[in-house]
Amino acid sequence: MNKRSAPEEAACSFFLERKKRACRMKTVEGMSYCPHHSHLNAEKNDKKGLRIPCPYDSSHFCYQSKLEKHLKKCNAREKEKPEYFVKNINVGDEPKDEVCRVTLKDVSDEELLNLIEKIKTIYAKNCSDIQNFNEVHPILSKEMQDTDDGANSFKHMKQQGSLLEILSKFKLLTDGLCFVEFGAGRGQLMYWIVKCVSEKEKASFILVDKSAQRHKSDNKFKGEDFHIERIRMDIQHLHLGKIPSIKQKLNKVVGVSKHLCGAATDLALNCLTKTLSSDPSEEVTSCQALGLVMALCCYHRCSWSSYVGKQFMRRNDITESDFKLMCCMASWATCGLRKIKNENVDHPTKCSVTNVAEDKVLSRYIKLGLEHNEREEIGSKCKRLIDFGRIEYLKGLGYDSKLLEYIDKSVTLENVVLVAVHDKSL
Considering the entire predicted model, what is its pTM? Predict the structure, then answer.
């Protein structure tokens, strides 16, 4: 820690070793160091006193005389948790599973081929073709005809329109319900749900997302005479039954999401089926969501600890390690190792393969006879088996559940939606 030999007037005298120059921050009157560095030699400001490290976060400092005031507004302080925050309530009973990560490069060629054969056998035994449902709700059909926002906006509107029509067809878009959108982002899907509900004052609209969002669609409803609420929280800690606005509609909750990534889908399923109770003593409540419509994606980000279909996997001799490998293979259905002409062992042609490591991976697959079409088919089967475990879980709780192709693959490769309606509503 060195001072400059001739410090400039009103400039900090602290020397930054890493940058090999003096600090350029301005000093407080009568001090030789800037506020950020003044604590280093315990210089005292006549008016404010010493600067000390913040007790919440030692990377920043405050004046000792103003410590109490700083602690009340410091961004590093632990925020008071709302009533509906219950730590890890939706994670499952094995929350430390990701400590041991398994990837395809960790298994031998023989182990990989054996697992692939097992997946094909289980798929043939349990899975059937997915029904196509490619209709758009009238409210968005008209909007798409009038829009000039470009191809990307049109694509999202088409997906939202199809999800709205599915909600409508399964009688999950009626008055008096409580709609909860998980991974809401900007809330565009909820925006159109609100538009579709005629008696909004009898309904509730809850948007859940763990990050702060700009340009939120729900801002367009500020001042309206109905209940719309945004909750900033990770789904794994969310207890729906303790949200004040849901307590009166515990048996009228409808869960929705558009491309909720991997493990977050299972967290949301746990949330909808296990936390719709205002009584914290009830581990599993008899009150469950009325139904759900969840567009699926990002299977490579699924987690064994939160996955709801463990029973199905175990019954079919799929271990935790196998499941993690299936999540890796699921990406074959949509990944960048694409089909190219003359794909062979000696000269594997590359598309998005941009480095030696990926080139080596592609060569391994070709050597094993796993060319693009085969990998794509296996990846799709892995995804469907993961989904079938979710369906079996929901059926065990009294839901009529199924998968639908809700949009064409030319719009999005992740074009499957999970639909479930509880028997009590049929």
Answer: 0.78
